[in-house]
Structure formats: C-alpha cells, structure tokens
Amino acid sequence: MGDRLDFLRKALKRLQETDDICVEAVSSVYETEPVGYREQPDFLNLAVRIDTLLSPEILLSELQRIEKDLGRKRTRRFGPRTIDIDILLFENQERSDDRLSIPHPRMKQRAFVLIPLRDVMPDMSEVVPDDAGVRYYCDMDLPSCENDSHSPAKLPPD
Ligand code: AMP
Questions:
Q1: 71 near 11, Cβ under 8 Å?
Q2: What is the mean pLDDT of the chain?
Q3: Structural domain includes residue 154
Q4: Ligand 1 atom closest to Cα of residue 63
Q5: Number of domains present in the structure of the chain
Q6: How far does the centroid of ligand 1 lie from the alpha carbon of residue 85, in Å?
Q7: Residue-by-residue DSSP string for 26-59
Q8: What is the pLDDT of residue 41?
C-alpha cells in the first residue's frame, strides 16, 4: 500500500491547499491493528480540525476528490486502502441521509477515532472506549496556511 505516513502527509497537504479550508490542528499519528479483515498491515490514523466556509456536502466532495487523487483503491470492506477520509463532526450538526451522517455513525465505538479526535478537541466529552491496540506512532507538522484565500478565519489587513 506504499508508505503509509506519506499518504497522510500528502492528504494533509492537499487539504491545506484546498480553497476555503484552513487546517487548524493535527493530532498525533496512531497505529492501529485492523478490525474485521486482519490479513493486512496496521493502519495509521490521525484527526484534523479545520476551519472552512464549505458546506458539509461540498467538503465531502473535496475529501473524496483527495482520496481519488491519492489513488484510493479498495477491494473489500474493512480491507486495505491507501487513504480514507471521513467527516467526524461538523459544528454541532446532526444529520443522517443517503450521502452523509454527522456525527460519523461509528466514531463513538472506535478508540482509534476518539483518541486522535481528543488531541484536536481537548474539551471533548466523549468517553474513549478500551484503547488496547491503539499505539502512539509519531507527530506530524502542521502545514501552514500559505495563502490567505485558504484561511477563511483571517481578516483582511487594515
Ligand atoms: P467510506 O467507504 O468509509 O469512505 O464511506 C464512503 C461513503 O460514506 C460515502 O459514499 C459517503 O457518502 C458516506 N458517508 C456518510 N457519512 C459520512 C461521513 N460523515 N464522512 C464521510 N463519508 C460519509
């Protein structure tokens, strides 16, 4: 599946380069044993907090474009894949329709989701379930918002 960390680095860079998205915080990277189909390498997971002007639907399309550009291929559910980007939370929205469920429906049972999420949302109230099998792996640099147009939170200069 290639260099697992490199896929995360590339996805993070692509996210930061997307118009109207600013990456505000990046969690540590955690290594996780696969659930379900076990004949595959361990996964690397991280969580990102972004500031964005995009709607959840457009954000999902942008994330799917990044997945596609990074060559996501998957042959079976829970099987190996280059990259999987999900929306976990979006402000305080709650919704569930054909395309999008927010909060992400399975996040509360998954320590490999909640542990990185807690890094970028220290005030999170969710109780993290048994964290066996989730190991700290490394830290990533936070890519800077290079272009003001990528940073909706910034005010124009006086
Ligand atoms: P996955 O295979 O895990 O990447 O799931 C992809 C599908 O899940 C997409 O077709 C999305 O429309 C749908 N989906 C529903 N809720 C979410 C969410 N919160 N984040 C990402 N994908 C979602």
A1: no
A2: 85
A3: no
A4: 21
A5: 1
A6: 8
A7: EPPEEEEPPSS--SSPPEEE--EEEEE-S-HHHH
A8: 82
- The boundaries of the domain holding residue 57 are 4-138
pTM for the model stands at 0.84
Q: What is the pLDDT of residues 101-125, one digit of tens each?
A: 999 998 988 999 999 999 999 999 8
Reported as type and span, the H/E element at residue 96 is: strand 95-96
Both tokens of residue 110? 């998954």
Inter-axis angle of helices 56-69 and 4-17, to 10 degrees?
A: 140
In order of 46, 61, 85, 108, 133, the CA distances from 137 in angstroms are: 10, 29, 19, 22, 12
Ligand 1 pocket, 89 CB below 6 A? no
Residue 158 covered by a domain: no
Q: What is d(CA 72, CA 84) in angstroms, rounded to the nearest whole number?
A: 8
Pairing relationship of beta strands 29-32 and 43-45 according to DSSP bridges: antiparallel
Instruction: Evaluate: CB of 100 within 6 angstroms of ligand 1.
Output: yes
10-40, pLDDT tens digit by residue? 999 999 999 999 999 999 999 998 877 777 7
* 3-class DSSP assignment, residue 144: coil
